[in-house]
Amino acid sequence: QVQLVESGGGLVQAGGSLRVSCTASGRTFSMVVMGWFRQAPGKEREFVSSISPSGGSTSYADSVKGRFTISRDNAKNTVYLQMNSLKPEDTAVYFCGATFAYARGTYYQSSGQYAFWGQGTQVTVSS
């Protein structure tokens, strides 16, 4: 079992930056794939970014590539999403997910691949 808690959301102007964090419980954090997803009002949850257990492999949605950076600190049981050059269309609730089902070469871009979820943190980008 993994419990996830997101933090760091808030209100920022377009073009600004924000970093959201997700801290996990337990001693198995270094074994899980971590992902960030977001959900805007009236829309489905969409993939943002994922990172392998070691941090050596990452993937991004095309809409955030070059602007967002995912990283993790396994000693702190925490994954980060650094968001730069934010746009109003980035406004959403951001969720982190975790799964133990890691396979090298697999892209973890579907919400159905994740077994554990946090409660989400709101990110609002004003124009």
Structure, described:
This protein has 127 residues and is mainly beta. It has no helices and 11 strands. The chain has strands at residues 4-7, 10-13, 18-24, 33-39, 46-51, 58-60, 68-73, 78-83, 92-99, 116-117, 121-126. The chain is globular. The termini are far apart.
In summary, what is this structure?
The chain has about 130 residues and is mainly β.
Whole-number radius of gyration? 13 Å
**Shape type:** globular
Q: Catalogue the unreliable spans.
A: none
How many DSSP helices?
0
Overall SS class: mainly beta
> Helix amount, in percent?
under 10%
The biggest sheet, with number of strands, parallel, antiparallel or mixed sense and barrel status, is: 7 strands, mixed
Task: Name the helix and strand elements from N-terminus to C-terminus, one letter apiece.
Answer: EEEEEEEEEEE
What is the topological layout?
Elements (H helix, E strand, L loop, with lengths): L3 E4 L2 E4 L4 E7 L8 E7 L6 E6 L6 E3 L7 E6 L4 E6 L8 E8 L16 E2 L3 E6 L1
Parallel strand pairs: 2-11
Antiparallel strand pairs: 1-3, 3-8, 4-5, 4-9, 5-6, 7-8, 9-10, 9-11
Question: Any key phrases for this structure?
Answer:
single chain, 127 residues, mainly beta, seven-stranded mixed sheet, four-stranded antiparallel sheet, globular
